[in-house]
What we know:
The protein is mainly alpha-helical. It is built from 25 helices and no strands.
Amino acid sequence: MxxxxxxxxxxxxxxxxxxPAEADGSAPAEAWGSVWPRLTAPARWRIVPALxxxxxxxxxxxxxxxxxxxxxxxxxxxxxxxGFDVDLRAAPVATLCAYARTYRRHLVALxxxxxxxxxxxxxxxxxxxDIVHQEGLADRIDMGLLLPGVLATVVLAVTGLLTLWxxxxxxxxxxxxxxxxxxxxxxxxxxxxxxxxxxxxxxxxWSLLLAFQPxxxxxxxxxxxxxxxxxxxxxxxxGVFHPFWGSSMTPFGKGLSYLDRYEAKTAADLAVTQLKGxxxxxxxxxxxxxxxxxxxxxxxxxxxxxxxxxxxGFVDGVPExxxxxxxxxxxxxxxxxxxxxxxGGAIVSCARLAGFRLLRNTYRPLEARTLAxxxxxxxxxxxxxxxxxxxxxxxxxxxxxxxxxRVFFATFMAACVGNLLFHFIRDIxxxxxxxxxxxxxxxxxxAFYTLLLALGVGISQARGQSRERTGGWLRGRxxxxxxxxxxxxxxxxFDAPTDRIHTIGQRLHFLxxxxxxxxxx
Length: 521
């Protein structure tokens, strides 16, 4: 990030190592002295008490007894959330890791390794077996040797790349680490699908690609931290590739530089961070119960069909009434937001219990008044990934003399191009299963989705910079919120990155049916 360059609000990063007060709904830890009177005021009542703002709770949690109580509370929360299919089993381990002080990073790396073993290192072993059978090599290849072999090869290759990368700082490749990694993924996929790779070479190439794919964006963050590659041992970088507190292909916590800024450095800071994690875990439990109750009420008692059912029924020629289609779409939006909040909340709460005060992944998305603001609030770490690897590189290189066009084009590269590439790489298995043509052509609907998203967010950015928000609850809050919800509900009709069967024409036809543009015959 270039000093002095103004960025639009949805893409701005926190100005300091600590999360801003607005990020998690609480005041900074430094404000302890003036917090207690506000806690007792009726206007400050909360469903989950603000324990991290209470000096007595912060002091108590630093004692041995307080730590035992915290560990017991976290364990009970993990059991309770398990009843709602929310995995918080890493939380007790995270709490213990936080108390290791100088050995915290060692335990984080060890816990990450153990959790990776539990998840088979996120390798799609089923697809590799299918490719082995497809090539007629089931009786010649031992999967028990193939998978550890390709995994060791990937680890050695990644370690070698991280070791050599600082020496390439002056080269052209080092300036575009994300481009290099994406090119490597597509290069492996093209080579694996080529006719000359039939047989054992195809099995090996796909195995290497599927072993490398889950760590692509973690490696991209590590390569972007060139100074950290020389300041920290490599095992620390590898120790946060799919950290044990949880993640998808999207890194929760980015790289070591980001974790360093948000790591608790003192006992008091650790106590505040862990209390924030405890609060977030409690809130996650409440939302998980709300999600379960919403599903039982809407789909069970009221009989509102799920969106997938109404869409498939329309495609099969038996459409539901238009009102039920809209109800199913609206219910999906609510469930999607709640699911994302619960899933991300469990991960971030574990990270906080481990001593890393990460920002919330989903934070009050229905308070968004613009499309850009909703995108920023809905899936924070995924938005950050697109911003770091697509928005910033474009923003600092293109259209420097035209501020509006500069922001719009950078937003387009992040929300459309980066978004599309991320999901295509995540679902690269379709290339092996369907071939290049069907894998690419079948992604047309999702490509249209990313295009509409980029245009909507980009225009929202431009309008947000050119006008002030109108006052009043109706015009200032309710109407903008309804517009945002309507936009993303309609947009979901095309959001199908894993659907390679239904065409964009079928989805457009369904959308026209929703708005009554044409009658169903």
